[in-house]
Description:
By secondary structure, this protein is an alpha+beta fold. 25% of the residues lie in helices and 21% in strands. The chain is built from eight helices and ten strands. Strand 1 (87-91) and strand 2 form a beta hairpin. The longest helix has 20 residues, at 265-284. The chain is globular. Residues 117-269 form the Nudix hydrolase domain. Keywords: Chlorophyll biosynthesis, Isomerase, Isoprene biosynthesis, Signal. Pfam families: NUDIX.
Amino acid sequence: MMAAAAARPTLALLASASASLGAGRRAWARLAVSSSSSAGSALPRLRGRRSVASAAGGAVMGKAGPGAVDADAGMNAVQRRLMFEDECILVDEQDNVIGHESKYNCHLMEKIEAGHVLHRAFSVFLFNSKYELLLQQRSATKVTFPLVWTNTCCSHPLYRESELIEENCVGVRNAAQRKLFDELGIVADELPVDQFIPLGRMLYKAPSDGKWGEHELDYLLFMVRDVKLNPNPEEVADVRYMNRDELKELLRKADAGEDGVKLSPWFRLVVDNFLMGWWDHVEQGTLHEAADMETIHKL
């Protein structure tokens, strides 16, 4: 995916954008990562918003046929390529890999409701040295949840060797590094794989509209690091760093329906159940103490 010009933020406190991406995409070095998870302190009491379907079943499902391609001929070319070419990792509710399937099929509500496309995902929460959280607004061309505000980066590890590595969540970390470059233009050297801290996993289901939705087992990755941004407008409409008070105001607007503000359902689940407690650990430099990678929280 080619790097794009810097996004045009409509809100204050935009991070300084990089003038260019340098040499562009480079081959990703996949390094062994020392374990960063621990049996840390208990997490806050959970407030689930949606029931979760029964465990995903089956192994590899069929590819989307020509009819599906024709039906979505009007889809943005970049998003269409990602939908039909990217292969997500299918898992059961215990996070065991059971197969793979196209991103397209994994996000069709009819298949989600049938209980066959639970897939692995990740959500990155990137803080700067002022302990402000970087949020993005998804582009208008995104197939699912267009123009909603969400955490720094949300996507999927793909069914490929480097992103299937289970030990120390290396595969998911590799995927996060890849996607942060694709969406926000942050080069790999600024995001060392071993500095992503996995804090937990959650399983949720949420519709986007009548056709599309999410059913994901989501890895929650945190990092504190100052980076240069060069957002890709095919993926990102806007970006903004926020402190706690600014985030609370964004939540208020979303709840009140002001200014058309909408939040992604996975981001709202993390905010309601974990984020403020974890933000304390961000500021105190004790994120590893908050990690619990044994529990899968069904929200």
